[in-house]
Amino acid sequence: MVKRERWRQDFSGWFNDILQDADIMDTRYPVKGLYVWRPYGMKLRNLVFSRLRQLHEDTGHQEVLFPLLIPETQFQKEADHIRGFEGQVYWVTHGGLQKLEVRLALRPTSETSMYPMFALWIRTHADLPIKVYQIVNVFRYETKMTKPLIRLREVTTFKEAHTAHATAEEAEAQVREAIAIYRKFYQELGVPCVISKRPPWDTFAGAVYSIAFDTVTPDGKALQIGTIHNLGQNFARVYGLKYEGVDGKHHYVHQTCYGISERAIAATIMVHGDDGGLCLPPDVAPIQVVIVPIPFKEKETPVEKVAGEVREELRAAGLRSHLDDRDLRPGNKFYYWERKGVPLRIEIGPKDVEKGQVTAVRRDTGERVTIARRNLKAQVEQVLRQITDHLRQRAKSSFEKSIHPAADLKSARELLKKEGGIIRIPWCGQESCGKRIAEETDGEMLGEEIDSTPQPSARCPVCSQQARVNALLAKTY
Ligand code: A5A
Ligand code: ZN
Q1: Ligand nearest 461 Cα, by number?
Q2: Measured distance CA(212)–CA(135) in Å, rounded
Q3: How confident is residue 298, by pLDDT bands cut at 50, 70 and 90?
Q4: For all residues of the chain together, what is the average pLDDT?
Q5: Ligand 1 nearest-atom number relative to CA 258
Q6: Minimum-distance ligand to the CA of 222?
Q7: Do the two domains 6-272 and 289-384 of this chain adopt the same fold?
Q8: Pocket of ligand 1 contains residue 142 by CB under 6 Å
Q9: 3.30.1330.10, 3.40.50.720, 3.30.110.30, 2.60.40.1120: which CATH number matches 404-474?
Q10: Residue whose CB lies within 8 A of the most ligand 1 atoms, among 158, 231, 476, for a mutation test
Q11: Where would you find this protein in the cell (predicted)?
């Protein structure tokens, strides 16, 4: 039975408890905004990010690794970028007792670290496109309330991709490819999201425009879980990223960059969890199947031996399985693995041994299924697929319920206040109207949704002109 009361009503408390109880993070590190990955969390992290890595490799991105430190002289070249980040940069000012001549920034993101090197790599059109990515830590002196996995001062798992292209069209196409990659990534994790073009007053520092992916937290706020930026030629101009074209002339390149952090893991944890704790999609669960032997004192049956065999069989089938042979009561073990979100538990008691079967219990629904030993691999795989589908479906339908269409500012404001979630409202697209919509509804403008268009008859609630796009509004994390 799935209960989601605390999950909804005290999401923050639920989230912090689960990080601790399920061995994801230790939040007691004595620096604000910095946290420790514990072993189980680390496994989850690596499984999630290896999928993201694979999606980049499959589309021709190459992995690189740039230094953490960026000289101030290099960092300060792109004016908008600097303005956007200056309040968030940690500076290294000393080496030992020596004061550094040029201060060094701890990267808050790597444009200013990478692009001067790109300038050395790019000579002619034959050197293009460049498509690279790295998964690194970045530092941001966040002033809003810090929160593990969500708002960190050391983002430990920052996947950032950076590209350079000969033409604006190619950069546009790259933005579309990045959207497709992120869509697929979140689809696989079963994390539903909306995609929007950020409003012009809220684009990434140094970008021409930005695209954002947002999901909704159990307490009804929007959480941005990835962004894609078309940088145009802004950085190319200041770092001199030029190539010689077929025309023999020199041209500035066109660039894009896009990033996802461990917020992707926060999103996975929060959209699928319930009052019992984590509930992980099988694809990224560190343990997909846990086997709990249930010995019966008066009866001489080899449950432990059979449990060991079942474990071996599942392991040989490529399933991440674990035999819990600790000297604890089965009930305690059930509770323990439930908190950790293991998708499937296999119980083996004397009766199961006699009948040549096992009893499987689904974490997502609590449903019990009897599986014959001879069908073990095929049936376990099938149940895991059903769990994946069910989690995705459940998350999707609860997400859809949290998106509220509105036609006027008053009802938008009331909906947002009462229901939370995301408001979808027609918009003419003018900046002044957009800002008014955000103000009057007491929400934040996520941007214009890219997957929807307003009814032809829809009007902007501020100026009454025909609506060109749907705006998305929400309270945000
Ligand atoms: N260079 C580009 C890709 C960039 O830095 N974009 S960004 O600033 O929007 O960050 C990308 C994503 O990282 C954000 O959408 C957000 O999901 C995540 N992120 C940003 N700051 C974060 C923080 N302090 N803690 C956790 N995640 C963060
Ligand atoms: Zn308008």
Answers
A1: 2
A2: 19
A3: low
A4: 97
A5: 3
A6: 1
A7: no
A8: yes
A9: 3.30.110.30
A10: 158
A11: Cytoplasm
- Residue 140 Cβ inside 6 Å of ligand 1? The answer reads yes
Give the tens place of pLDDT for each residue, 379-394: 999 999 999 999 999 9
pTM: 0.97
Going by alpha carbons, the residue nearest to atom 23 of ligand 1 is: 151
Atom of ligand 1 minimally distant from the CA of 111: 1
- Give the pLDDT confidence score for residue 1 in this predicted structure: 61
pLDDT digits (tens, 9 = 90+) for 220-263: 999 999 999 999 999 999 999 999 999 999 999 999 999 999 99
CATH number of 6-272: 3.30.930.10
Beta bridge partners, 134, equal 160
109 lines ligand 1 (CB under 6 A): yes
**Ligand closest to CA 464:** 2
Q: Ligand 1 centre and the CA of 9: distance in Å?
A: 27
